[in-house]
Amino acid sequence: MVPEAEVQDVLDELQRLRARVPLLSGALAASTDGLVVAHDTPGVEAEGVAALTAAALGVAIRMTDATGRGGFRELLVRGNTGYIATYAAGTSAVLTLLAEDRINVGRLHLEGRRAGTRIGELIDAALARPGRPARAVGGPQPPAPPNSPLPHRPTT
Fold first, then answer.
1. 1-16: per-residue pLDDT in tens?
2. In 3D, which of 100, 93, 92, 111 has the Cα closest to residue 17?
3. What whole-number distance in Å separates Cα of residue 115 and Cα of residue 49?
4. Residues lower than pLDDT 70 in the chain
5. What is the pLDDT of residue 150?
6. End-to-end CA distance of the chain
7. Are the CB atoms for 18 and 31 separated by under 8 Å?
8. Contact indicator for 87, 73 with CB cutoff of 8 Å
9. Kind and range of the H or E run holding 84
10. What is the pTM (predicted TM-score) of this model?
11. What's the CA gap between 52 and 18, in Å, rounded?
12. pLDDT for the residue numbered 129
């Protein structure tokens, strides 16, 4: 698991992101297995969103594989009243943002990608520290080189 100091750093990043982008109604960092690392999601059950993100991530990874589009980078879902955007955050985590329908989608992507990179750096650095077991945020994970795409899920 991610040490408490890094969890606080991730939470701080989520809160700064929400302050920069007023039409964000929530922000959540989670492992690729669906375990919450940190969240700022008032009125939304973070554990449920993290689990659903992991399920959507599995489908997105299979789609990018099946269509030859490379490793997963991001996913955007639009509902009647807003957006859910998920971005790769390093090698073992994702950033999910909840946004109102009026948001500028370009700005959402710009800020989401930047925050995903920063959060990924924090989590990957915490997991790569000497003396720490080589495991992902949510469980066993083979080590991946820096800046590599998220791990592929089995397709069997």
1. 688 888 999 999 999 9
2. 111
3. 18
4. 1, 131-156
5. 56
6. 27
7. no
8. yes
9. strand 82-89
10. 0.83
11. 21
12. 81
CA dist 6 to 21, 78, 129, Å? 23, 31, 12
The DSSP line for 89-102 is ETTTEEEEEEEETT
Q: Are 90 and 10 in contact (CB under 8 A)?
A: no
Which amino acid, one-letter code, is at 153? Answer: R
- Paired tokens of 70: 């490379």
Q: Which pair of structure tokens corresponds to residue 83?
A: 């957006």
Nearest to 14 by CA among 4, 24, 3, 1: 24
Q: b/e per residue, 94-114, with b = 16+ CB within 10 A?
A: bbbbbbeeebeeeebeebbbe
Res 149: pLDDT: 53
Helix-, strand-, coil-residue percentages of the chain, each rounded to 5: 40, 25, 35
Instruction: Give me the count of residues in the chain.
Output: 156
